[in-house]
Design goal:
Blueprint: E1 7-12, E2 16-22, E3 31-32, E4 35-40, E5 43-47, E6 49-51, E7 54-55, E8 73-74, H1 76-84, E9 89-90, H2 93-97, H3 123-141, E10 151-156, H4 162-174, E11 179-183, H5 184-205, E12 210-218, E13 223-232, E14 238-245, H6 253-268, H7 277-294, E15 302-307, E16 319-324, H8 325-336, H9 366-377, E17 386-390, H10 397-408, E18 416-417, H11 423-438, E19 452-459, E20 462-470, E21 479-481, E22 487-491, E23 494-502, E24 513-514, E25 521-530, E26 542-552, E27 558-564, E28 572-575, E29 586-587, H12 603-616, H13 625-629, H14 631-639, H15 647-657, H16 668-682, H17 691-698, H18 712-725, H19 731-745, H20 763-771, H21 778-792, H22 799-807, H23 823-835, H24 844-852, H25 864-876, H26 883-887, H27 894-900, E30 910-911
Parallel strand pairs: 1-10, 10-11, 12-17, 17-18
Antiparallel strand pairs: 1-2, 2-3, 2-6, 4-5, 7-8, 7-9, 12-13, 13-14, 15-16, 19-20, 19-23, 20-24, 21-26, 22-26, 23-25, 26-27, 27-28, 29-30
Helix pairs in contact: 3-4, 5-11, 6-7, 12-14, 15-16, 16-18, 18-20, 19-20, 20-22, 21-22, 21-23, 22-24, 23-24, 23-25, 24-25
Length: 913
């Protein structure tokens, strides 16, 4: 084994994981690594493709898997066995890594299953286990060169955002690997360069000195588009630059399988009947296997597709149909690769082909996305000169022919289809070529960053501006400073930044201020961080002068920082990305000079702080009882109507009142006003960098209840406050609240013992609070729903149905999607609701909307007959505007989310789906 480090390329794919390697001393010898994996219950085989599937065998199942990571087995057997038992199969983990509406660090996979004994994984851990399998296999085959000590290049979709890239790096680290990231389309082109050399580039150029190559990489879960320019200088030297990458398209082979499965389902069952999620997952996997056979070489005319029965009907309840080759070609060709002119627009539909919770692209036509991408980034070009197709779907000659036909019809120069003899291996081989090029043993693709990155600021004369930090085309490892823009930065207080990315239009220099528009700029998840030490309530926030710096790191991530200016030992504040998901991602602007939002009030804000200090500070003899009762009114006199208080103003007021919680015990009025003001200023409990500390300050206070427990108005404000901040409470905090209050809301048959130290009133306030606690296991939320439903049998209070609507909502207000109550349970609640006389239940229509809303996710949607019955009742109840939302996919309006918290949210606080 050579002393130098080997270069190893890993293509962590949605469907397959592929590994290749080379010794830098022999760069022309790029070798695929055959990965040992279980291919049957008792047989292990070495194969160049490791199926990216994880399967957990049932208790009685015996497997001879010396490579697995218990209780999971990975590879071809996992894929085939998981088709029979989809409730124990984890698939498409890579696609879940970029799904911002779920907590990607939580054990949410397999998605949509309720098998209580089945183990579960987070998308990060699933990816890490696949990489760990690779590492173990490699180390066994190369004991003198363990994988962790080699130069490892791991590929990702070009369109992965920074959060998804960071999560991929985290998965690699969990597997014990330090890796460098490379975009998959670039890797495919690197493989082309290795195979074809300069002769291949010259063939693309022909007689011209400049040519564009369009790379279309369609994998199992994503479609990645990249534009590459090949140029020849006057002296004959060749240069290759990446010009642009497409936006993230969660669109690939998985969608084709779903489309075929939907068609088969209509033949297997009489509409509107549908398969339950687990059997539909089985059908989808069966359609995938059939599709691969029917689009491959020497394909049969048709293939049977079978879905087994369940339980005692395992055999007798089986359903079978056939997929014809002509049907597959029609669905795939016309649905995903239709003919599209160069100016064909992408169709923004309300619904896409979805089934398992992933936000698939609304327009499935890959050729339309291809045309739109090229028109956006090469508006003056008639068409590309070269076309490189990659991905497993292009094993089907008919699909490659259709894409070539579409691009050729754009009336551009004669199109050269670049050879790609093995699309399955191209990305891993290309990753090795990239690693070798880093060592000077091959040509590098230039072009730098595909996006420019900007920080949102406020400047004179512009309502919304952004300052360029990292320009488009920036080189890896090259640090950029926003020159000429010294900013004043608060430390010890929340600071949030809007981050924009631009992939087209002019290239701006670092420090240049622009006005972002929707055509060229994309708003990314905001960056939030706590800068410096926390500032106490009685200390003024400090400001330091900083400059912004940014760098596209060598491992493929974006690093941003605020660096103290004109200091002997400058402090550096890194800006980190939110990785858990957008469930708590909220955006707001920070000014060019990060002034606090109280500045327009001037002295009035100081007076407001003084008013709070008088009531809740050290006891003062000159403070009259009325001053306590009228504190909110006095604050409104000083700062304006409370509805207009900005999020920043609210948080700064909370930082004055929050730590004064001991003073709330002075009187019943102190207690009531404390919870009124604290809850109002911290709502909805998240959105600013220090909110976890703020909610953490309040969380222990719930168990203390009220000191003046006989005051009903005090209890009312107490529970309103906790509803307002529920979105910021951690799962452990929400569980602790449920543990405390469940004895008061549970059915009598539960026999739960009520704590003596906690005597809340009234029960309805408790129910409304518990319905807002979304970060709890679905089973526990379902139990709360069952107790609430039982109350409706003897209590006609319409608030009970409002509570049920929140508990069983198909779209959570703030939590990850995996907390949603199972649809089969909610269908039972709807059955009871549909029997009510809605004219006597004013909350019925909204509750029905929440319970029956279409999400496009089979694991969350109630069945169609129930939804149609709900639609009929909504029509009769005079709520036709809600009918469409229970029959088709309609995005949740921000006002609907705000209503969850029972009031408008602070000005400037925007909830993101």
């Amino acid at each position: 084994m050579p002393a130098s480090r080997l270069v190893v390329g890993i293509d962590l794919g949605t469907t397959h994981t592929v590994v290749a390697w080379a010794d830098p001393e022999r760069p022309s010898e790029v070798t695929p690594f055959a990965i040992p994996q279980l291919v049957s219950a008792s047989q292990i085989d070495d194969r160049p493709l490791l199926a990216s599937f994880l399967y957990a065998p049932v208790g009685s199942e015996v497997t001879d898997d010396s490579w697995g990571d218990q209780p999971w087995t990975i590879g071809e057997y996992a894929r085939r066995r998981g088709q029979e038992v989809p409730s124990r199969l984890v698939a498409s983990a890579k696609s879940w890594l970029c799904h911002g509406a779920v907590d990607r660090t939580a054990p949410i996979l397999p998605w949509g299953t309720e098998a209580g004994d089945a183990p579960r994984l987070s998308p990060i851990e699933a990816s890490a286990r696949i990489l760990k399998h690779v590492r173990r296999a490699w180390d066994a085959a190369h004991p003198a060169a363990p994988l962790a000590q080699q130069q490892v290049v791991l590929t990702v979709p070009a369109s992965f955002d920074q959060a998804a890239r960071e999560l991929t790096l985290r998965a690699a680290a969990l597997a014990g690997l330090s890796v460098r990231l490379l975009e998959e389309p670039q890797a495919a082109f690197y493989d082309f360069l290795t195979r074809s050399g300069d002769a291949g580039l010259k063939a693309v150029l022909g007689a011209e000195n400049d040519a564009l190559v369009l790379v279309c990489d369609v994998g199992g879960g994503t479609t990645d588009l990249t534009l590459i320019r090949v140029a020849r200088s006057p002296d004959g030297a060749l240069a290759v630059d990446r010009v642009a990458v497409g936006r993230h398209l969660l669109l690939g082979g998985d969608n084709m399988d779903l489309a075929l499965a939907h068609g088969c389902e209509q033949r297997l069952l009489d509409p509107p009947a549908r398969l339950e999620p687990q059997r539909f997952a089985e059908l989808t996997l069966a359609c995938r296997a059939a599709k691969e056979r029917l689009l491959g070489a020497r394909a049969p005319e048709s293939v049977p597709v079978t879905v087994l029965g369940s339980g005692s009907a395992l055999i007798g309840g089986s359903l079978t149909t056939r997929l014809e080759q002509s049907e597959v070609e029609r669905v795939v060709l016309e649905g995903f690769f239709p003919r599209a002119s160069r100016d064909a627009p992408v169709q923004r539909r309300r619904t896409g082909i979805v089934a398992f919770g992933l936000p698939y692209e609304q327009d499935p036509a890959i050729t339309r996305h291809l045309a739109s991408f090229f028109a956006r980034h090469a508006p003056d070009a008639r068409g590309p000169r070269g076309l490189l197709l990659n991905g497993g779907v292009f094993h089907a000659p008919r699909l490659a022919e259709r894409v070539t036909e579409v691009v050729s019809a754009w009336e551009g120069p004669p199109l050269e289809l670049l050879a790609n003899p093995d699309p399955d291996l191209a990305v891993a081989r290309g990753a090795v070529a990239f690693g070798l090029a880093l060592a000077g043993r091959g040509r590098r693709i230039g072009g730098g960053a595909a996006h420019g990155y900007y920080i949102g600021v406020e400047s004179e004369g512009a309502a919304r501006s952004a300052l360029c930090v990292v320009p488009r085309g920036a080189k890896e490892g090259e640090r950029h400073v926003a020159a000429g823009r010294t900013l004043a930065l608060r430390i010890g207080r929340p600071v949030r930044f809007e981050l924009f990315a631009s992939d087209s239009g002019p290239v701006h220099a670092p420090g240049q201020i622009v006005v972002p528009d929707d055509e060229h700029f994309e708003l990314l998840p905001p960056v939030a961080t706590t800068l410096g030490e926390s500032v106490g309530a009685n200390r003024e926030s400090a400001e330091i002068n900083v400059v912004l710096e940014g760098e596209l790191s060598a491992i493929g991530t974006l690093d941003l920082a605020c660096v103290e200016a004109a200091a002997t030992a400058p402090r550096r504040f890194e800006l980190a990305f939110e990785l858990r998901g957008t469930e708590t991602a909220v955006g707001s602007r920070v000014s060019e000079r990060p002034r606090d939002s109280t500045r327009p009030f001037g002295r009035r804000f100081d007076d407001a702080c003084e008013a709070i200090q008088r009531v809740f500070g050290k006891g003062r003899s000159d403070v009259k009882p009325r001053e306590t009762r009228d504190l909110m009114r006095e604050l409104e006199r000083l700062l304006g109507e409370r509805r207009g208080w900005s999020a920043d103003l609210c948080r700064q007021l909370f930082d004055v009142i929050g730590p004064k919680h001991k003073a709330r015990r002075r009187s019943a009025d102190h207690e009531r006003v404390y919870w009124m003001l604290a809850g109002f200023c911290l709502r909805p409990g998240y959105g600013h960098a220090l909110d976890p500390q703020r909610t953490g300050l309040l969380a222990p206070l719930f168990a203390e209840g009220l000191g003046f427990g006989d005051e009903s108005r005090g209890w009312q404000q107490f529970f309103i406050a906790w509803r307002r901040v529920a979105g910021g409470l951690k799962e452990d905090d929400q569980r602790a609240i449920r543990d405390l209050v469940d004895p008061f809301v549970a059915s009598r048959d539960q026999n739960l013992k009520k704590p003596k130290s906690f005597k809340p009133q009234p029960v309805f306030e408790l129910l409304e609070l518990t319905s807002c606690l979304e970060r709890l296991p679905p089973e526990r939320r379902a139990a709360l729903g069952r107790w609430t439903l039982e109350r409706t049998w003897t209590d006609r209070d319409p608030r009970l149905w409002a509570v049920l609507g929140r508990i069983g909502a198909r779209v959570p207000a703030y939590a990850s999607l995996h907390h949603v109550v199972a649809p089969r349970i909610v269908e039972g609640w709807l059955d009871h609701l549909l029997r009510e006389k809605w004219q006597d239940v004013p909350t019925a229509a909204r509750a029905a909307l929440q319970l029956a809303r279409v999400t496009g996710d089979r694991a969350r949607d109630v069945n169609e007959p129930v939804r149609r019955e709900v639609a009929r009742h909504l029509e009769q109840a005079g709520a036709p505007e809600w009918v469409r939302a229970v029959l088709e996919l309609v995005p949740v309006e921000e006002t609907e989310r705000a209503e969850f918290f029972g009031e408008e949210l602070p000005v400037g606080l925007r909830l993101l789906e």
